[in-house]
Structure formats: C-alpha cells, structure tokens
Specification:
Elements (H helix, E strand, L loop, with lengths): L1 H15 L4 H11 L2 H9 L11 H13 L3 H13 L6 H13 L3 H9 L6 H13 L3 H13 L8 H11 L3 H14 L5 H13 L3 H10 L5 H13 L3 H13 L6 H14 L2 H14 L5 H13 L3 H10 L5 H13 L3 H13 L6 H6 L11 H13 L9 H10 L3 H14 L5 H13 L3 H10 L5 H13 L3 H13 L6 H13 L3 H13 L6 H6 L1 H6 L3 H13 L6 H13 L3 H10 L5 H13 L3 H13 L6 H13 L3 H13 L6 H14 L2 H13 L7 H13 L3 H9 L6 H13 L3 H13 L6 H14 L2 H13 L7 H13 L3 H10 L6 H14 L2 H14 L4 H13 L3 H13 L8 E6 L2 E6 L6 H22 L11
Antiparallel strand pairs: 1-2
Helix pairs in contact: 2-3, 2-4, 3-5, 4-5, 4-6, 6-7, 6-8, 7-8, 8-9, 8-10, 9-10, 10-11, 10-12, 11-12, 12-13, 12-14, 13-14, 14-15, 14-16, 16-17, 16-18, 17-18, 18-19, 18-20, 19-20, 20-21, 23-25, 24-26, 25-26, 26-27, 26-28, 27-28, 28-29, 28-30, 29-30, 30-31, 35-36, 35-37, 36-37, 37-38, ...
Length: 958
Amino acid sequence: MQASLRLLHKSFCSWQHPPSTAEKLSGLASRGHLDEAIRLLLSNPSRDFPQLPAETYLSLIRSCIKFKAFSQGREIHKHMVNAGFEPSLVLLNNIMIMYSKFGDLNETLKVFEGMSERNLFSWTVMIGAFSKNGNAQKSLELYGKMVSSGVKADSFVYPLVLKSCGAVKDLRRGQCVHGEVLRTGLLGDVVVMNSLIDMYMKCEMVVDSGKIFDEIGDRDVFTWTTMIVGYMQKGRPLEGLELFKEMLNSQVRPSSATLAGVLPLFSDLGYLELAKQIHGLAAVTGFEYEKHVGTALVDMYSNCGGLCFGRLIFDRVKEKDVSCWNTMIKSYVQVNLSDEAINLLKFMQLDGIHPAKSTWSCFFPQSTKGKFSIHEFIKLIKCLEHAEVKPGVFPVTLLDQMCENIENVQQVKELHLFFKRSGGIADSSVGSSLIRMYSKFAELEPALEIFNFLGVKELDSWNSILACYAHNGYANKASEIFDEMRKTRIEPSVLSWNSLIAGFVKVGDFEAALETLSDMKWANQKPNLESYNLVLPIIESSTSSMIGKQLHGILLRSEGKMNRFLCTAFINMYGSCGNASYAIKLFYSMDCKDLVSWNSIISCLMKNGFLSETSRIFREMGVAGVEGNTITWTTLVAGYAQHGLVDESLKHFRELQLKGLKPNSITIASILPACAQSATLTHGKSIHGYILRNKIISEDLFVSNALIDMYIKCGFLEYSEQVFRRLHQKDIISWNTAIQGYVIHGRARDAQSLFYQMLDEGFEPDPITFAGVLSACSQAGMVNEGWEHFNNMDLKYGLIPTGKHYACMVDLLGRAGLFEDAKNFIFQMSLQPTASLWGALLSACKMHRNVEMAELAAGHLLELQPDNAEIYMILSDIYAKARRWNDFNGINRMMEDHGVRKLPGFTWIEIGNSVYSFTSENLLNQSINEEVDTMLLLLKETMIMVREGYVSEVTIMN
C-alpha cells in the first residue's frame, strides 16, 4: 500500500514538474537508449541545451563505454564540440577511455593533446591505450613526458610501463622503472612485482625475475603463473614444472592461464600417459573445458598420439574461439586427415565463426618453415569447392608463398577461377597477390582485369598493378597508374615510388627515373635504401660528374645511410667522370671497406692516370689486411699497360701468379697489348703457352683476338695467321684484326681476299672493317675497288663514313697520282677535313713530288698542328727534291722561329727478355754493345750452318 502511494506521489510530482532535458538524457543513458538520447540532442534545441551539466554528458559517455556504442559516443562528443561545451577534466578522461576502448588511438591522442590540464589519470589512460594496442614505443615516450612534467607514477602506471619495456625488450628503461618503484615504496604491491617479473623474463633476465619472485612474500596466482609461463617461454621447462609443483604444494589454486602455460610442456614431451595425468589435474581444477585450457589439451593430445581424446575434449569446450578450431584442424592435417579437417572447417562456419587467416596456415604447417607446395594448395582448393566451403580470407604470408612458388601461368589461372567462384577475389590482398602472379609471367591483361574488378582498391592493390607494368617494361603506363592513384587520394608509399623508378630504369629512361626520385623528395616521401639501390645503374653509367654529385647530395640530405654498395657505385661514377679527388674523399669516409671498395678506388685512380696514388692505395690495402684478388691484379696489369709502363705491367702479371692466383681471360687480354707495345715476342709466346695449357683460347674470343693483335704488332704475321685459322668461332673483331694485320704487313691483296671470305661466311662489316679494306686498296693502288667499297658503306650497309674513311680515300687517290680527284673529294666532303686527311695528301705529294698540292696540304696541316715537326720535314724534303732551295731554307727558318725541333729517329733490339731502344744521340752503352756483338756472332754462325744445309725447326704449340 505504501509502495503504491510512493509511486502515485512520484507521478504527481512529475506531472507538476516535467523532467528536464538533462534528466531525460541521464535516464536514457542509464537504460542504454543511446540512439534516442542522440535524437533528443540533435532535435531543435531548447533554452536549457547550452546549460546541460557536465554530469549529463559524463553519464552519456560512460553509457557508451558500458554498452560499447562507438558511433553514438562519437556523435555525442561531436555535439559537445559543436555546442561549444567546455568539458571538465573528468569528462575528458572518460572521452579518452571511450576512444581507447574502441581502439581509435588517433582520436584518443587528439583529445589528450587538446587538454589544457592533465592529471595522473589522464596520463594513465593514454599510456595504457598505446600499451594495450601494441605500440609500446609510444607508450614509453608518453611515460617519459609524464615524468618530465612532474607527474609521479603510481601502482596503476608502473605495470603498463613495465609491460611496454618487456614488449620492446628495453632492459635499461625497465631497470630505471624498477629503481623508481624502489624509491616510491611500491615493492609491496603484488601487481607491480608481477609486472617486474614479466618484464625481466621478456628481457631474457631470468635470474633477475627469480630474485624478485623470491622477494615476494604473499604470492598470488598471477605471480606463480607469470614465473611459470616465463620459464616455459625461455626454454627452461623443467624449472617451470618444478615451480608448478611448488605452487600446488603452496595451496594456491592454478588458474586457467597457469594450466594453459604448463600444458605445452607435456605437448612437447609427447608422452600419452603423462598427458592423461595432467589432463586429470585440469579436470580437478574445473578448467578442463575452458577455451584456453581446452585448446591446450587438444594440442597436447594431438602431439602425443591421442587425437581421439583431443576430439572428445574439443567437442565439450565451451565458447570455442578461432584458436580452438584452428588447433583441432591442424591436428587432423598433421595425421593427413585432410577430409576431416575440411569437414571441421564446414562445421566451424555453421557455428558462426569465420575462418581467420591463421586457419589456412593450419592446412600448410610446412609453409612456416619455408616449404610450400603450390600443387598441394591447388589440391586443397579443389577439395574445398567439392565440400562447398568458402575460404574467406587467406593470410598474406600464404599468399606471398603462393606467388613465390607459382610455376606457370596455368596455375595462376586455376587460382584465379577458384577465387572468382568463391568470392575471395573481392579481397584486396587476394586480388593483389593474383596481380603479382600474372605479372611474374608478363600477363598484363588479366592482371588489369582483376584490378578493375576490385571494389575497394587499397594501397597494396595499386602497388601490385603499378609494379606489374613497371617491371614488364611499360614505364609510361605505370606512370599513368601512379598519377591515377594520387587522384583517388591514395597516398603513394615508398614502394610505389620505388616501383616507378625501377620501371624507368628498366627501359633506360634514366632522366625520368631521376626526376621521379626528385618528385619523391618534394612529396615529403623519404627515399629508403632500396630507392638509391635502384638508381645504382644510373650512378655507375653516368659520365656526367654533375648528375652524380646531385644524386650524392640528394642521398646525404635525405639522411640516408651510405652503405658500401652505394659508396662503391659513386666511386666508380666519379672515376668514370674523371673526378678522382671526390672518389678518394668518399673512399676514406667509408666506415667499412670491403675488397670491392678497394678494387673500385684502385680502378678509379688507375683509369685517371694517378699511378703513384694507385701504388700507395695498393700498399694501404695490404696493411689493412685485405688480400687482393684476380680483379685487383688485373686492374693493375691493364692500367700500367694502358699508360705505357710495360715493365710494371709484366711485373704485376708475374706477381699475380706468385701469389697463387690464376689469371683469367681479362688478365690475359690486358697483358697481351703490353707485349705488343714492347714488341717483346718472348713474353708474348710465354703467355700464349699459358693460354694453350689452360684452354683459354678455345673459350674466350676476347683473348684470342688480343693474341692475334699481339703477334701482328710484334712482326710475326704467320703466327697470327695460325691463331686466326684455328679459331672455332670468330666475331667481327677477329676478322678486323686479321685484315688490319695484313695491311700493316703490306699484304693488301690478302686483306682484300680475307674481306670477301668474311662476307661469304655471313658477317656484316663495320666501320673498322672498311677502314682496313680501304687502307689495303690504297696500298695496292686499287682505285676502282676503293670507290666501290666506299660507296657500299652507305648504300649497301647503311654505315656513315667517318673522317678515317675519308682520309683513306684521299690516301688512295693521292698514291694513285689523282690529285685533282683528291682535291675535289676533299672540298666536296660533308665533314670538316682532319689532320690525318691532310697528312695523307701530304705523304702522297712527297711520293709524287707534287709541290703545289703539298703546299696546299701543308698549309692546312700547319693551321691544325703548328708544332708538328714531321710536317716541316716532309715539306722541306719535297722542296729539296724539287731543288727549290729558297723554299727549303724558308721552312728551316720557320721551324727555328716556331721553336720546332726535329725528333731523332730511333730503333730497338730485343736481347734476352729485354728490349733496348737507341738513337743517334743516345748510343748503346758498353755492356749492351758486348751483348749485341755476341748476338751478331751467333747469327753469323747460324747463317754458316744454314748455308751448309742445316735447317732449324720452328713450331707453334697447339
């Protein structure tokens, strides 16, 4: 009766005083009617809306947290902002809790940073939000700011911070926090102590964890569980088991987490009887069918050969989660019961649980060990289709392995059809993987079809189609896709930019690649190491020091780390551009120099003629304990030979062999020109013997061509002929070298004959070939043939004659005495006459004593080469033979006026393994004279033997 009166009184009061908006909202909040509350908030506002108390908003926010109403909470917060309401500190803290509970860390941080004041609770919420969401580094960063702001941590903050320290294995920070715990007197707080145990365990400090465990007097189940699980995870199961026994004896009842942590030990042991005993313990504690313990029991029985027991437990587990289903599926797969696993997958979906990405990894346990069979996967998807099981989503790692192991385009098409029928192709990760698979086999049309089919195109999808076109040589199309991606407001990642750069590099559009790298910087996208590795071909092929310096500057400004590969590339580039000083500075700035780096700087210095610096760097290399390889020595051999230091080249060639290294074809091809320069046949023949013994000549045309050239320049044409004839395979260089050899030795007809033989064997002549053939025609006076060859260059072979060819034609016409034809030819030619052309005409004038044409040629030559003594000498000789003594004396006076001195002629002779040169101004010394006399005496004796009928035998090794 009294209750009825109270209700009547309440109703009467409400009728007299209707509830305010604030009271209505609080009532709706308490009952969880948040949609209705929001409608009330968004309706035409009454006068009291601006005066809504903070408690009303607080009740609404707390209701959103309680009923997990994320969208409603966002709307309420938005209304507060739009209404210009100034929330209290307590309300702001609750708004942060709401956003953190829903996993929206950006909004949580936004609210936190907008707070004019913060208390310990504010910091705790923010630190906890990042800690629980796996961003331990940010959590520790916030803790540091909190301490700096003068706010002291408490027993709620320390566990969060210690958890973050353990997650990133930051032992130093964890030890500092431990010190703070000591100073604040919280060692008696069991939650903090448990967190310290866990932190030290995760930082691999098991002994320290044990010390803290021993210091705790009143241990709870979490203390024991943290220590036991820590032992198990650190590979110390026996200690964990011993501690588990001690826990049971201490009358502390294990929790489900304790049992779930201990059971994997019995799973690894693989003993069925022991498994049954621990199962009995789980049954006694009442956690037998709890999902975590039940899952661990299923796994234990499957590993101990008791799959049927595991299935019995599985069927009784309450509230099975994905992990529980996965464990049972994996158990069937391990014993090759794939049909049972697929049936279980079907029941899983019927139970309302969708397979996760981890579920599919259970069907391929070997994939985690790097062993993946695409055939097994295709077999599985066929079984899934037969069982009418939709796959859902696949893990990215599995998709990546599919892409890596796919063998042919037919397999890609099978997968494509499967995902299309099952609806899986709509998943961005699946579509992206299929695009990458098609890209692997240059199938661009189906890749584009998949991309266009995707409803929501995520960054991964754009990157896949972009890379597909870029890596298959369609850089311009890739650029269009890149622009389209930006128009759809998808921000390109570093991978996007790198794919585009790689595409331009692949097609040789280096300018576009560099421009893209520059655009990447302007777009505030920081290039990574891969970005610079992609432009390595540009760096190494660049002949412009300016471009190289720009690239170098971009890398340094981007704070990118110059690894040794990049440094080496820049050293090579600076060497090619003739900027050795930059190369040396960069070399000495390297922290880690490997053999490739040393070889690069040696090559750079040698290429640019810094021979003494090269020698010094080579010595430093030895002091640094870096042993040179064949490439090092070959660089030295070739470099000294190219700079005319033949003795040094031969010396390093010998040292290379003394070091126990084997010269390769490049070494041999580098040393042979040195022998040719010195005209030392002895060394050349020795190297020829080495080539034959090591069968290099039959494998490398580069070497055989160099050998032919060496014999020609040493004056032994017959040896070069033998080498040429024995070549199993010839290239155009082989033919050109042999033709030039005949020309050098005055056998013009043989050169012509070899040229026609080359044509018969199907070789196309190049400009060098025609230079040799035209020289042969000039020697033999074959004017008509010479004109025919010259005209055929353009008409028949599409070769544009160069200055060398025009000079050969002038020489041909001049030698034949056709000076008017030669003069007309010169003045009608499309190129500017060169010194070699006028020199050829002057030499012909000397032959035919044509003074008038000689004066014309000499005049042009002296304009080009006023200090060339040979021009004066030839012209004076022509004047002398024409008895024009005034002109003869005038030339001599001109030489004196210009300070031009006649160079003395010289000759050379090989004695032993050495070559000696001498002139009329530099006579042989006494010791060499004696050796020459001995050689002449032997020569005289040999001639007598030959006259008496003795014939020496000369052979070539083969």
